[in-house]
Amino acid sequence: SQQGEEDPQALSIQEGENATMNCSYKTSINNLQWYRQNSGRGLVHLILIRSNEREKHSGRLRVTLDTSKKSSSLLITASRAADTASYFCATANKAAGNKLTFGGGTRVLVKP
Amino acid sequence: GAGVSQTPSNKVTEKGKYVELRCDPISGHTALYWYRQSLGQGPEFLIYFQGTGAADDSGLPNDRFFAVRPEGSVSTLKIQRTERGDSAVYLCASSLDSSGQGNGYTFGSGTRLTVV
Fold this sequence. Notes:
Number of helices of chain B: 0
Helix content of chain B: under 10%
Mean pLDDT of chain B: 93
Radius of gyration of chain B: 13 Å
Distance between the termini of chain B: 33 Å
Mean pLDDT of chain A: 91
Order of helices and strands of chain A: EEEEEEEEEEE
Strand content of chain A: over 45%
Low-confidence stretches of chain A: none
Number of strands of chain A: 11
Strand content of chain B: over 45%
Distance between the termini of chain A: 36 Å
Oligomer: heterodimer
Number of strands of chain B: 11
Low-confidence stretches of chain B: none
Shape of chain B: globular
Largest sheet of chain A: 6 strands, mixed
Radius of gyration of chain A: 13 Å
Structural class of chain A: mainly beta
Largest sheet of chain B: 7 strands, mixed
């Protein structure tokens, strides 16, 4: 079963625009992580936000976490064609041994 | 090594055959995870090791699936009597520990298994 659900499932934008995707989850978490995947192979860790944090930045990435709503958002600013990929949120739940549970992902297409 | 290495990168096998998929984690990473990903879906947890022992194997779909990590480094995922429904990309990841507060997992490039 998958803990997180991403919204939207797919997103198409022009280069230079911002891309925003959301993740909702069901149980309490220790931390939430975002990953990127190109061409259906290995995932690359982007950013981790702990349950006691509300916002985190890394380069052009901004992640928010609202534990009261059990949701997170990932914003990619000034998108580039190279940002085209699938983006997944994953939650770590201490009760489940902190293993990551992934959502279904958002497929982002950035058109040049 | 510098990253997580998975071999083979692609495997085509006939229904009913036995396959082994190998994962070589980052040196020093005590936690190792196996996931399975079907087309268009997110990775699905199979099993994770802390050191040599399987700390959580709750994601293994049935007793045809088994994984080992005898020396606490390389791991092998074994699938017996393969079925067409086993076709997927099998992903391996490692992390420094399983506290969940580190810097995330490092994934390998996966093994694409096709059962014909």
